[in-house]
Amino acid sequence: MKFALTLLHHESIVTVMLHSCYKYVSLSALAFAALATPALASTSGCDLSDGLSLEPLAYAQEADACFEGLNGVDYDTRLERQIQDATNATRAAAGESHLEYQVSLVQAARIHAMDMAVRHYAAHEDLEGRDHLDRVRTFDRAILIGASGANIVVVDSAMDADAIMAALRKDPANAANMTREAFTDSAVGIARANGKTYVVQLFARVDGRLETPLPLVISGTENIRATFADNRLQPVGWRLTTASGDTVARGLGTRMTDPLKSGEQAYLTLDVAYRASEYALRGPLVIGR
């Protein structure tokens, strides 16, 4: 028996002072009555029973191990691409541009789908409080994101790409994300376990990239010169902010020199100007050596 349950359905614009970051997130679930399912054994060093580490280096290592395999959980790259292609077909029919496939979005989507499958929940944040953008900023060392969005659906494992697309599009917020003009990149992550398919679809507007990818652990002077998708964007400055939003370092120019204490974690944000407005472009997570 199938039934629909909307767990979260909202569209929000988050503004911090003059800097705007847009997030569009929606979550729906079908065939979601019973998540009390058996525990899943680990393989290749992957253990999601208590989640991924809060320490970023360990988090990245544990995620890599999980991508190599987890007993009882399968991911389906063919189905992921089918949903990606179907989304682009939907956009084309609506007169919107093609979404580029982004590897770091796949990584962030897939590890979250696997975590939900193992720990039996459905949410945009994991049980430790990390959201989609946190995951992307851990995996990707160069991307600069101006807007992001996400769709989540949990369905019966027998459902194919067409049925999953129909399930996603039943939620108006999901459907709106698929055709949102602001987005330039997308990816889908899928995990199958205990007769269910966990689907995480991520979207982003990639406004630029760092010319030199930042290492996760930084020391000395780091180059943060960026190339922007729109040459009308003008750099204003850079900030390093904690997960709670506190600014721990800021500056001008294209270099950072010893901005963090040893072990201190922060996210790079580049502030840019376009005409009379300023915008925040979200960059990688970094740790002081």
From TrEMBL:
<keyword id="KW-0732">Signal</keyword>
<protein>
    <submittedName>
        <fullName>SCP-like extracellular family protein</fullName>
    </submittedName>
</protein>
<feature type="domain" description="SCP">
    <location>
        <begin position="85"/>
        <end position="203"/>
    </location>
</feature>
<dbReference type="Pfam" id="PF00188">
    <property type="entry name" value="CAP"/>
</dbReference>
<dbReference type="InterPro" id="IPR035940">
    <property type="entry name" value="CAP_sf"/>
</dbReference>
<feature type="signal peptide">
    <location>
        <begin position="1"/>
        <end position="41"/>
    </location>
</feature>
<dbReference type="InterPro" id="IPR014044">
    <property type="entry name" value="CAP_dom"/>
</dbReference>
